[in-house]
Amino acid sequence: MTGDGAFLAAAPLLAASLTRDPLAVSTVTAAFYLPWLLVGLPAGALVDRWPRRLVMITADLLRAGVLTALAVLMATGHAALAPLVGAILIVGIAQCFFDASSQSVIPVLVGRDKETLTRTNGRYWAIDTVGRSLAGPPIGSAAFALSRMLPFAGDAASFVMSAACISRLPAMPAPGGNLPLVAAVRAGLSHLRRTPELRMLATGMALYNFAYNVSMATFVLYATSVLHVADAGYGLLLAVAAVGGILTGWRAAPLTRRLSYRRMMAIACCLQGLAWAGIAAIPDAFATGAFLALIGAASTLVSVAASSARPALTPDNLLGRVTSAFRLFGVGAAGLGALTGGLVAGESTLRIPLWVAAALLAVTGGFLRPWARRPT
Fold first, then answer.
1. Is residue 373 included in any domain, yes or no?
2. Percent of the chain clearing pLDDT 70 (strictly above)
3. What percent helix, strand, coil does the chain show, rounded to 5?
4. What CATH number does the domain containing 37 carry?
5. CB 121, CB 311: distance < 8 Å
6. Taking Cα atoms as reference points, which of 263, 261, 258, 267 lies closest to residue 370?
């Protein structure tokens, strides 16, 4: 996960060193999202018919090989934008398979008890945040400054180590099912549509991702232009948000013991809406830091609610497909939210997207109807 965070920081830096064309550089960001839109659902269907430990190991080794090749290109002076974008796409496709498998493996290993699932997923997302958001990006930036190939070679090594660790998991046979691929995808979507709690949570996740990215799309401009935060200070603000997410993830089970999954997500959306409203209303860097810690905590709660509800409400042979469907809706909504945030800021002020996000999150909290008495 730390290697992923380093890769996420180093890839745009490499793109910017290869070309100053904004459209060309933007293809790197698009390449991170595109795999889920292209192969997310088929990947989930295939994960449900293949041995999941083998899928994860294969995905890790494929990513290691691609990043090693990219590092060799840089070391020999043949770095170019096309190989970088190609590498990001292949790594992203492998991640679609890995993520669907890893989320499906958790209930096999720990069971489907709510307390256990919440605790396990809370710590999973806490560790993910440490690597992907707190430690990885600064390590990737620093390594890139030393040598352009270093963060990519390091990420390749991290995937090899991950494969070695996963190989120690117990063997897990394929859940079964040999439906044609299109029929298998439809079966997963049908289960999601016919399960009210899952349907509400998937919609809530999409709305949350849309609102969050409306505000984050131009937040760097708000921080630097309105709050007058330096570049290094902006990194610290993001680190504070990550710390809030880490602490909440580690204590997710006791914090949410009396909450259903739907209530957990609804409360998280409302808290984050209040935080974005606070950032818009109080243009102060220190106050913003405190609100960002709350935003990080709420983000982790949303992830824990979704990742715990899926195995609790989905049979094992459909879990990969349902996980991929959640990711597909979330990624698509995130991209649309970022575009909307940029358009809103361009037509108004940098503060308006924050108010829009706050309103959307409040509406999402109400949409989830946390007061409804439905078993989860």
1. no
2. 95
3. 85, 0, 15
4. 1.20.1250.20
5. no
6. 263
